Amino acid sequence: MITVNRFPFQWGDYGPRIELVISVGSLSLFLLLYALASRLIPLIPVWEVVEGQHATQLRRIGKAKVPTVTNLE
Questions:
Q1: Are the CB atoms for 69 and 56 separated by under 8 Å?
Q2: CA 61 to CA 20: how far, in whole Å?
Q3: DSSP for 14-70?
Q4: How confident is the prediction along the chain (73 residues), in pLDDT tens digits per residue?
Q5: Phi and psi (nearest 5°) for 56?
Q6: φ/ψ of residue 24, rounded to 5
């Protein structure tokens, strides 16, 4: 008589090996791409920096000149 194995696999203990590798790899790839994108695309818009430079003035308070920010309208 021929015995046929009904299950095409062997029973064993489960350990999340490949899932952890995929999760850590995905997170690492995202952080790498985010770091590269932040080098190419500035996180602070340039127009806000320029606007802040235009709003800054040196004013004399006592004997010192102090940078102050004026309100732009």
A1: yes
A2: 61
A3: ---HHHHHHHHHHHHHHHHHHHHHHHHS-SS-HHHHHHHHHHEEEEEETTEEEEEEP
A4: 666 667 777 777 888 899 999 999 999 999 999 999 988 887 777 777 777 766 777 777 888 887 777 655 4
A5: -85, 135
A6: -65, -40
